[in-house]
Input
Amino acid sequence: MIRHVKDDLYQIGGSVAGHDGWHEAVRVYVLLNDGCPLVFDAGSHVHSHDIMDELKQLLGDTPLGYVFLTHTELPHTGNLSVILNQWPDARLVVSSGILPHVELPWWVTADQVMFAYAGTEESYGGRHISFLDGILKDQPGTHWMYDAATGTLFTADAFGYLFPASADAAFDDELAEGIPVDWIKRYHDSAFRFLPQVAGHKVNADIDKVFGKRSVQVIAPTHGNAMRGNIATCTARFHQAMLEICS
Amino acid sequence: MSPDAHICPVPADAIYGEVDTRVAVRQITPQIYWICHCIGPGAKEWNGGFADDFARSNPLLDPTANDIIYSSYLFLDEKTFMIDTLGPAQHHTVLKALEDLLDGRKLDYLWISHTELPHAGNTAAIRRAHPDLEVLTVGGHDHYEVHGLGDARLLDYGDVLDLGTHKIEIIKPLFVDHALTQWIYEHHTGFLCPVDWALNDHNEHQCFRFMDEMEETGYSPEHFKQVVSTTNRTVFAWLRWADAEVVGQQIDEFLARYDIRIFAPSHTNVIRQNVPAYMAALKEAMQLAITGDFDIVY
Output
């Protein structure tokens, strides 16, 4: 389902239902960027048909410019071949921390790949995207990205949440109580199995450093819907989830 | 034929492909094989020259050690059992190595330690070559279809696979990145596969060597400690939020529980001699990692 998040930012992609009724989103974000669209993560192969339909609706005749990967796990790259078959001139932007010969599909060619370095900002089709380390991550070569034009922080797996079917595709400001701590906790407890071994206040201090350096207006997690309503409430609930999961 | 009389079906120095497709086979025991990939000459260019950065942060490290090993393992018992698949670029060479090692036998089990591409990227290709194969992976989660493991058999901690002589036990990992991660311990040989734990780099003269063979090039437990203390800050960046003393206790408890005689991670030269010295170095390395500078860009 295509959801307009803010300005030229859109959310597409699907979700999968668990055996216990809790759903997990696998989202793709699109910045239309005035003629040179940027896509963040490629989505899952299980949602390939819907993702491509939605991308074609959004882009029309405009060719895709860049695909930014937060990291290279299958839920983030499973639809990559279909996207690059459709738009073979699109470039792939990945963290400098990944090694293509083991972490990218074998058919990706060297000239398709651009490396991004944490602490730098680059222009892609005139859009300035900056890069930082993945602060909370489950794969070493994970980076977070920030689009200053919309104030969007792309956080890969972090800030994901599980939700009941009734909340599928709903943004935080479309839910009466926002995104509950319990939903955030359910996801992070499952996705980051190391959290019980660490101190929650240290995790939260690092998250605060990221938000203290930029004016985040949208948090765009792959495994949740965009958070755009009340960022302070969302981060406070994330903090509470960390304190409850961690040691 | 007794298990210990098993003859290696491929030459001792078998290497398939080159550079990004390069895969070697080493025999660990008569029935356990190490199938491993690294770049070799040219690793600095392929891997981004990380050794210079590591050596700047720790002058005790080798500034030419730009290569990393990626490992898969194969047990040839009454049942055949493979650990992980190597990455997509190695799909032809790992399949050829597997074919030669199996020597006409079928592959019974493929166990996926976790779902990152260097570990699971050839699952579909191996399944196509061995259609009766049973894919095994980590139980206790959900949404497996997005990881390409929708029809895998799910294993829990304590489950034991009886291969014949070898008994593979699924054990709880001490250090994880991806949530869908398990470790295994094999009781007959004391073989431990702790997956991503203890990554060490190597230079082009140290490719495909067992750790005791690395020592012929000047390597030592002390060197191992220095390397792992640096690399594991990257592999497990969450260590910066952990407590060094608690982690040390957890490692002690783990090492007391398992009689490790073959230490066979995914990204470390296999340790088959002097294991206690390397385990002591590993504990110190993890504590050094926690207290070191993680150099995070916020």
In short: The mean pLDDT of chain A is 96. Chain A has one domain: 3-166+215-229.
